Amino acid sequence: MALVVQKYGGTSVGSVEKIRAVAKRVADARDAGHKVIVVLSAMAGETDRLQDLGSAVSARPAAEEMDVLLASGEQASIALLAIALKDLGHPSRSYLAHQVGIRTDADHQRARIERIDTSALRESLAAGVTPVVAGFQGIDGSGRLTTLGRGGSDTTAVAVAAAVEADECQICTDVDGVCTADPRIVADARRLDHITFEEMFELASLGSRVLHPRSVEFAGKYAVPLRVLSSFATGGGTLITVESESMEQPIVSGIAHARDEAKITMSGVPDVPGVASKILGPVGRAPIEVDMIVQNTGADGLTDFTFTVKRGDYARTLELLQPVGGELGARSISGDDQIAKVSVVGVGMRSHAGVAMRVFDTLAAENINIQMISTSEIKISVVVAERYMELAVRALHGAFELSEPNG
Ligand code: ADP
Ligand code: ASP
Ligand code: MG
Q1: In the predicted model, what is the mean pLDDT of residues 21-26?
Q2: Which domains, and CATH codes, for the chain?
Q3: I want to staple 161 with a disulfide (CB 3.0 to 4.6 A). Which of 169, 353, 376, 381 is the partner?
Q4: Atom 9, ligand 2: which residue's CA is nearest?
Q5: Ligand located closest to 212 CA
Q6: Is the pTM of this model over 0.85?
Q7: DSSP assignments along 304-356, one per residue
Q8: Residue range 195-229, pLDDT digits in tens
Q9: What is the pLDDT of residue 246?
């Protein structure tokens, strides 16, 4: 008998039929003798709907109230699943974050889980009652609701699994597992049987929605066995593993893409110490997350400074830069919010040269202009115009032969 945490995402609980089907799957696992803790997302589209409502009321809705608003989606889905389980004759109970004791910091809309009290969950399991826990939400030290950032239910599931020392955390979703690229873009993307934590973290951070980056970080840190699999089809899905010395690592494991990017350039700023800090200071304090940064070699004592932010932060970043541009005597501030980032990830890159050249050659052959480049020892990311993003992903997937087994 195993203790398993099963997390079901939005599309998996997106309709009454699907909620009933999930209830059946949970009931089957229980009938097979396992103990199950369920973690749920809101029904598909619900969090977006709530977000739009908040944005319709105010151009800058208060983050702490947005948390109360967005967290309501999960309150509905857990109640519905608990109802469906009871209908099948399986005792179950819904739990909001504060009823479990999922404590987070007070960083609204992107809170981090600090600890989880396991007593309520353990009592429930001991009484044979399946807990159905609201994902994505937490409670801070002053008793206010928080949320973990979009896609954060995965992190709730892994944190719960770590806290109760579950035998496995299963992220049940609308694809068969982690694939070599988003199967919605690359038709012949191949499911990976396993992938290392390191690569998965990189893919998730670079835009592969299939797992929330923090969930991978958590699973690595607390050694939680983590699996991504289909909510409805059978199959082992993808196991996230620790890299072992003996494993033959593919050079490239997958391609990630992130659509919602924007870049901003301040040109003609003095090429002197302290400029980066003057430009990025107000952005960082906003706080707006900056991703790639490029500063050109100076000419005539002047230089251009370019960086990327999330598209949703674009307008606000431009606003924040106006006074800085004036202060620095910048020639111009320009930007483009129709860009995307495409990344090639693989731990095998460490021991293989030439991966970057293959990326550049492939994009050149497709006539795709590379606007920015950033590399680490296990990834290469490029910024391209958003309209070429899908073409770039498909071309790179082909160039690295990812649809072939062991490609
Ligand atoms: P859920 O609602 O279950 O949390 P998400 O939409 O957050 O599901 O994540 C699943 C989606 O992630 C898939 O439908 C797929 O389009 C996308 N995705 C992006 N990259 C990958 C990848 N490398 N492998 C599998 N799915 C991916
Ligand atoms: N419902 C939340 C969202 O849509 C959390 C999640 O689905 O993981 O972002
Ligand atoms: Mg998700």
Answers
A1: 98
A2: 3-245 (3.40.1160.10), 255-399 (3.30.2130.10)
A3: 169
A4: 150
A5: 3
A6: yes
A7: EEEEEEEGGGHHHHHHHHHHHHHHHT-SEEEEEEEEEEEEEE-GGGGG-S-HH
A8: 999 999 999 999 999 999 999 999 999 999 999 99
A9: 60
